[in-house]
User: What shape does this take?
Amino acid sequence: MTNPIGVHALVWVGDTSLPSLTSAVERTAAAGYDLIELTLHDSVDLDAAATRKLLEEAGLGVACSRGLAFDADISSADPAVVEKGAGLLQESLRLTHELGGSILTGVLYSALGKYAAPLSPGGRANVVTVLGELAAEAAGLGMSLGLEVVNRYETNVVNTAREALRLLDDIGANNITVHLDTYHMNIEEDDLVRPVLEVGERLGYVHIGENHRGYVGSGHIDFGAFFHALADIAYTGPVTFESFSSAVVAQGLSNDLAVWRNMWSDGDDLARQARTYIAAQLTASAHR
Ligand code: MN
Assistant: This one.
């Protein structure tokens, strides 16, 4: 089993202050994970140097993720809005690098939210330009970008793996990868296997989420099929558990993701169960 198994920090805490991240890092390591994913949506108080030290002491890897906002959106046709979005992406890339991470992923290509109209051709051209420039900057730092494929209520840019591959082809940078998330795939893809096979070696990051984003295995996602597909393409990248509950709230992000329900209260129990579940799936699919 070679995949680093990660957990999203929102299983533990809703903000990025040092006391919160100290707790999140300790609990991530205690639950047996290899990696923690930090969301950079509201990261104004994130102390990169101190957090990097915490991660190193705990022996944990880090990945960073974010989405953009409607007033800072590189898929907009308005140059000022695009520029603001590009600025946020550069800031997040730099922060990820300072934390010791090598991948910045998520909805880097648009706001995270429900659009009222389809993506415009001009807006798509702006995405291609800005992400091409960001990828070049990332390459200079030895880093890569992930484009997370999310459902129609959270973006109008890429809802399927195939659309993400087309966008990658248009950008033409070899350090941009596809990020698949089972929660979103369940809504938009025909099944959980073909997208993985089609993305193949361009898969760079994976989110494991139940259909309701609660305890993994308690819903109806066919994880057996998905993990077998990962084994079929010999995927060795991170597999990160992502779950949200009204028990832990990140201002802004939780509302953008429509986290209204209490899916769980005990993040430690949730994370231990998910770590065991994911490790078992990886082991089983390697011995098919
Ligand atoms: Mn996700």
